[in-house]
Amino acid sequence: MEPKSISAGVNLAGSDRHSELQKLKEMAQDFEAILIASLLKEAQPREPSGLFVGGLSQDLYRQLFTDEIAKAIARSGGIGVGRMLERQLRATLRPGAHDNRLKEPSRPADVTKGDSK
Fold first, then answer.
1. Disulfide check for 52: which of 6, 38, 58, 74 has CB 3.0–4.6 Å away?
2. What is the DSSP letter of 44?
3. In Å, how far from its chain's centre is CA 70?
4. How many angstroms separate the CA atoms of 81 and 110, rounded?
5. How is the chain split into domains, by residue range?
6. Do residues 104 and 58 touch, judged by C-beta distance below 8 A?
7. Around Cβ 73, how many Cβ atoms within 10 Å?
């Protein structure tokens, strides 16, 4: 095997890790945007007003506007939920992060057998 092909494999592995972390960050931001959008929807006035009063058009444009505002807030740092989620999920991507959870729990000594010494 040539040295060039070995280094190419290493770069690909690093690239895969980077793209995985980028996808994780985007997913956390998307989740935070959904959360922020639901908060913004609750904060909106219930009485229709403005250019598109009542009907499907008002609901549609209000929802699109709220979703875009929420995405912008999440991309700019948001309220911290996305960063917290990303940090928690990054820990699960580290090699060996689940080793302790995958091992069978140790069984307590059987005290009924009378193995006292």
1. 58
2. S
3. 16
4. 46
5. 10-94
6. no
7. 18
